[in-house]
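sorry for the late reply, my laptop died twice this morning and i had to redo everyting from scratch. anyway the thing you sent over, i finally got around to it. pasting the sequence first so we're on the same page, its 246 residues, then the predicted structure underneath. double check i copied it right bc i was rushing
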Amino acid sequence: MTAIASVFPATPSSSTALDAVRIKQLYFSYPGKLSAAVLDIPEWRIKQGDRVFIQGPSGSGKSTLLNLLAGILIATQGSINILGQDLGKLSARKRDAFRANHLGIVFQQFNLIPYLSVLDNIRLAAYFGNKDSSDIDLRAQQLFAALGLNRILVTKQAGELSVGQQQRVAIARALINSPEILIADEPTSALDSATRDTFMKLLINISQMQGITLVFVSHDIALAQHFQHVVNLTEINRARISSNVR
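ok and here's the structure:
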């Protein structure tokens, strides 16, 4: 806990929380399937600093929603505001820059570049966030220590690491640019129960200390106990479920 606290000092809570996410009249369908809505959400909000667990069966659009929140996809209709910024009004290049500077993403398969070293995977994320390179290596080392990663691993290629080690590197990469929002898409699906529980404790501690808004998707309903808010996507999404959509 001390190591984590040194990297992530507690952020004072605000009595009036602002919206981290605000959705209005969101409608999304993939190109070529305009008649088949994947998401149809009239309104939804997440306050800054909230920890939100999103559940729902396969095909309910969970991963599609996360891609929209990250600006990887753009709404067919309606608006998605992230930290006050309407993503639909940004060019693709500006969305990429916004994502790099304000959002951290932990993917299900971690998406590390296997032939790059652990440290270079982290440096690459910092580069896209346009961060001062002189501070990155020190911050990366602090993150590794906080996440329980042996310093010896930083020079290894990412593809040589165990699944649990890759997961912690993925968290460090997601946190290197000090994001306000952390998005996690099924990050525990490949882990055993002991590794999963350790991961969840780290993730919740870090989000609490730094006041990071956490948006977490999983099929594992047992993880819901760690979160302030639990949202069943089928209850806010008016679109029909498709077996071809994540």
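The mean pLDDT is 85.
thats about all i looked at so far, will dig more tmrw
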